[in-house]
Amino acid sequence: xxxxxxxxxxxxxxxxxxxxxxxxxxxxxxxxxxxxxxxxxxxxxxxxxxxxxxxxxxxxxxxxxxxxxxxxxxxxxxxxxxxxxxxxxxxxxxxxxxxxxxxxxxxxxxxxxxxxxxxxxxxxxxxxxxxxxxxxxxxxxxxxxxxxxxxxxxxxxxxxxxxxxxxxxxxxxxxxxxxxxxxxxxxxxxxxxxxxxxxxxxxxxxxxxxxxxxxxxxxxxxxxxxxxxxxxxxxxxxxxxxxxxxxxxxxxxxxxxxxxxxxxxxxxxxxxxxxxxxxxxxxxxxxxxxxxxxxxxxxxxxxxxxxxxxx
Length: 311
Ligand code: G3H
Ligand code: 13P
Ligand code: ZN
Fold this sequence. Notes:
By secondary structure, this protein is α/β, with parallel strands linked by helices. The protein contains 12 helices and 10 strands. Helix 2 crosses helix 12, helix 3 crosses helix 4 (59-73) and helix 11 (259-275) packs antiparallel against helix 12 (282-305). The radius of gyration is 18 Å and the shape is globular. The relative contact order is 0.16. Zinc ion binds next to loops.
């Protein structure tokens, strides 16, 4: 099946009260781990590449791998640019086979965010590509700028109608307390998301797909494995799964996950190499890494996002 946009996926997800998983990909094993899980569960899925992924793996390899996965699985798969930092990066992805791009103008002044987002929307829509914009800033790393929790600002519901109308974006990423990376809350801090803000946005934009970034749950068993086999990850707290389930039942149609995949891959690799110190064939240690990614993604699709059987 050729790559698809997120339009139909989001329409169905909104009506059905579930969300589509959007997983970051950087190499072949990650693409395969995710899409094998999606195939097993007959789930639509979004594979997304950051500017860093394009730098690491190169645009051509990423597009070819994702197209191969779509052909092999026959699933609806969208290829999305994650956190597009500028017009040129978005243009390069639109011209180069992506079906969806994010222009992340969230760290810019409001009017500048509108202007650059609209510029990307005009270019993308003329070529059949959909666009995600962002309002509000998450704590963590965005655009290679570190945003600390104190400087992170929640999305202002009173701005969303103006932003969506003037830019023409197809979906909107919002800040309600999630953040990028493994350390989302301080040790001892109780995870909290601003569902009141999500609710207010949903009321202002009925039927409009909302995106949740920074949504990894951080599997404690995987952290323990990393540390048992020589790693040194401090206590990490992610977004509780019941909160993600609740968001998926509301207007959130796309949930972004990267850190959970990184942590799973690292846990499996550390365990394998420590238990098998003589191994030096990459296929030996990348196989359990790919399998654990598949397990993590299958769990998200089936238990947390509810997109199983929706392809
Ligand atoms: O939100 C950021 C994603 O986790 C991508 O991270 O820029 O290190 O590829 P990256
Ligand atoms: P996590 O770091 O929580 O996995 O978030 C990933 C993300 O938002 C990618 O855009
Ligand atoms: Zn993100």
